[in-house]
Amino acid sequence: MSVPDIVPVILSGGTGSRLWPLSRESNPKQFWPLLSEHSMVQETARRAAGPGFAPPVVVVGEAHRFLVAEQLRDAGIASPQIVLEPEGRNSAPAIAIAALLVAEAQPDAVLWIMAADAAINDVAALHAALERAAAAARGGRIVTFGMRPTEPHTGFGYIELGEALADVPGVQAVQSFTEKPDHATAERLVAGGRHVWNSGMFVATASTLIAELREHAPAVLAAARGALDGAARDLDFIRLGADAFRQAPAISIDYAVMERTRHAAVVPADLGWSDVGSWDALWDATPKDAAGNATKGPVELLDAEGCYIRSEGILTAVLGLKDVVLVTTDDAVLAMPRARAQDVKKMVERLKARGLKQASEHRRMYRPWGHYEGLIMGDRFQVKQIVVRPGGRLSLQKHHHRAEHWVVVKGTARVHRDAESLLLSENQSVYLPLGCVHRLENPGMIPLALIEVQVGSYLGEDDIVRLEDTYGRS
């Protein structure tokens, strides 16, 4: 009998605030191409695709459902099960949901659980480690991957290696866990040679996870069952029962199960792994020039050394700086010593306290039909660029406080305006007076791009009265 496929479970609920201003709540780091032309969630899914792997289960916040679906589709990932969390409750409830969902059809299926935003350089070594972990998992173990430490890092948890498992070569029992230590403790753990970094990847059968949750975290399991019992299919998504899910304790799988179970095991490995959790970690994982500089985008350097410089469009010139991070986006700039990378979260909290939208929102906002981007904001007017993917259509809507002018700059637009239906091509435009019922569609084979000029007394996104929506939004 052939071995069943491994089921990848991708957790995509983080916001990555230490990578601000690139990563924000509206578009977190897992949806950005940080190390290649693919986003982090695409890289993660591609590592777990092909022979031997079932379609993935992806657990994501409701606000990012269309973004993750589009990126998986662009990466060629077929038939994913996308589960929508009503709110973030840490990793244990998300993993419980995935285990219960898979167990409905395959209780003994092996789950490979991983975060959507980690980097791994040696995929062949990863798959070899996964093979060993899966063998131990089929024997009733919950297996994590231990990364051999390269420095006394204080941002990772540590695992103490126990005895080797007699029945599975290359897998060891877990002796103990140590949460993120201070520097002195980290130095001692690394020097002792018995500790590895906790990568946050886990391998176990669905039935083992459910049994251990039942024993060690019954409230988590009960809430997950209730959320699945109250779940509904919404287009390509599984929308969990919100009230039941919110009853789940907000707890990590490490605290809920791994530190309590008698079945924890670890595969020590060298995978070129990074959690890419901060700008210094991204500098470390990025190829560098002879002076130790890592760059991305339109960047010019002169007498710079040990820097990470990234631009999302604006020419960024750096002269005579050493060991700094400089990141420019279209609406924010971050500059700091590379050694202060862990403190970016404090800056984001400060910006939020001041009520600045740049703390959590990008100018480009993604929607199920495509995206829009603010270009100019003035008194009683604003200008946006709207891009609609082929086959996409906005909701049938009207506005109480603004009129709109649309100018097509690329592709073909079908515009419904009250009783009219208009077909517009490049350089053609349409006026939508205040209160008219309208809808925009892209009937073509290439993306539709248009410039929208809004004029009125109030220009907020909440001045949209949706009368009908393909994507189930209210």
Task: Write a structural description.
This is mannose-1-phosphate guanylyltransferase. Its EC number is 2.7.7.13. The protein is 23% helix and 33% strand. It is an alpha/beta fold. Strands 20-21-22-29-24-27 form a six-stranded antiparallel beta sheet, with no helix packed on it. The protein has a five-stranded mixed barrel with strand order 6-9-7-8-12. A four-stranded mixed beta sheet has the order 14-16-18-19, with helices on one face. It is globular, with a radius of gyration of 24 Å.
CATH class of the largest domain: Alpha Beta
* Share of residues in helices: 10-25%
User: In the CATH hierarchy, what is the architecture of the largest domain at level 2?
Assistant: Alpha-Beta Complex
How many discrete structural domains?
Answer: 3
Biggest β-sheet description: 6 strands, antiparallel
Strand order of the largest sheet: 20-21-22-29-24-27
Number of DSSP helices? 11
Alpha-carbon Rg, integer:
24 Å
Structural class based on helices, strands and sheet pairing: alpha/beta
Low-pLDDT sequence parts? none
Protein name: mannose-1-phosphate guanylyltransferase
GO molecular function: mannose-1-phosphate guanylyltransferase (GTP) activity; mannose-6-phosphate isomerase activity
EC number: 2.7.7.13
Keywords: GTP-binding, Isomerase, Nucleotide-binding, Nucleotidyltransferase, Transferase
Short description:
By secondary structure, the chain is α/β, with parallel strands linked by helices.
Distinctive features:
about 475 residues; five-stranded mixed β-barrel; Spore Coat Polysaccharide Biosynthesis Protein SpsA, Chain A; about 25% helix; Jelly Rolls; six-stranded antiparallel beta sheet; globular; 11 helices; alpha/beta
